[in-house]
Every structure is written in structure tokens, then in C-alpha cells.
Design goal:
single chain; 8-stranded antiparallel sheet; about 15% helix
Length: about 160
């Protein structure tokens, strides 16, 4: 993905696909997952489209759903790059053998040299525990993401 991202060394690759342009990594209890993928920018032009596309991607890759409450959408500048940041709550599907969920956040970075975006999402699963520190930890990771020069070109 031509990015530099600082994460703890105990994150492990859970699933990846060069063909589908994603990597999903995670670490142990309290569980934190990071999903990074490329997609077409047309799906992220407004908040409603963004939510629909995130739902489809999360469902297909992670087998989880976005819950229809506690959603937030904002624009943010990260290292002089305009991004969209979305917050919400995810959960396993209703028929899951292991029902669980928690907060998530996603950053959508436009790549001006193409019609693609880079989406970085973080998820916390800590049943019965305080999740604020862990979601802030993921937020810090994404706020400090660095792109290889020339990949995102803002003038």
C-alpha cells in the first residue's frame, strides 16, 4: 500500500489478498483489528455512500456488520492530507455462533493520482471492558500514518 504505519509487534496477519487489495491484522485480548484496503473513490463521495460501502466491505472481509446507531462522519487533516473519518459500532451477524462487537473507526484517504482511496479501519472487541483507550490507540496509529512520497499528491 506504500504506507508507513507504526503498530505494536504483536499484531499478526489474519487475512490478506493481493487480488482484492486488503490486509487484515489483529492482536490478542482485548482484541484490536486493523483492516487496510484500496477501493474506488466513487463509493466514498458522501457519508451515506461511505457507510454502505464500509458495510459491504466489512461483511465480505470480516464477516461483521455495522450497527445502525452511534455513527459519526467528519473531515480531518492528517499530515497535510485531507481525509474522512467515520466512527461507528460493529457486530457479528445475528446468526453468529459467537455474538460480539464494539466500536470502530475508519479513515478514507483519497489518492489523487488515481480514482482509488485507501481505507484504514480499526476495531475494538473488549466485552465488558472500557474500550475508550483502545479506540484512541487505533486513532493515534491512523493519525500518524505516512504515505510514500508521490502516492498521494496534494498541491
Amino acid at each position: 500500500f506504500f504506507i508507513q504505519i507504526y503498530i505494536q509487534e504483536d499484531y499478526k496477519i489474519l487475512k490478506s489478498s493481493d487480488e482484492n487489495k486488503f490486509i487484515w491484522i489483529g492482536r490478542g485480548y482485548p482484541y484490536r483489528w486493523i483492516l487496510i484496503y484500496k477501493d474506488q473513490s466513487v463509493y466514498y463521495e458522501d457519508p451515506f455512500q461511505s457507510w454502505d460501502r464500509l458495510q459491504l466491505k466489512y461483511n465480505n472481509i470480516l464477516d461483521v456488520e455495522i450497527m445502525p446507531y452511534e455513527r459519526a462522519f467528519e473531515r480531518k487533516n492528517i499530515n497535510n492530507i485531507d481525509a474522512k473519518r467515520l466512527y461507528g459500532v460493529f457486530g457479528t451477524k445475528i446468526d453468529s455462533d459467537n455474538p460480539t462487537g464494539g466500536p470502530f473507526l475508519s479513515y478514507v484517504f483519497n489518492q489523487n493520482k488515481s480514482n482509488e482511496v485507501l481505507v484504514a479501519s480499526g476495531f475494538v472487541n473488549f466485552p465488558g471492558g472500557n474500550k475508550v483507550f483502545h479506540i484512541k490507540e487505533l486513532e493515534y496509529i491512523f493519525d500518524n500514518i505516512n504515505f510514500k512520497k508521490g502516492i498521494i499528491d496534494y498541491e
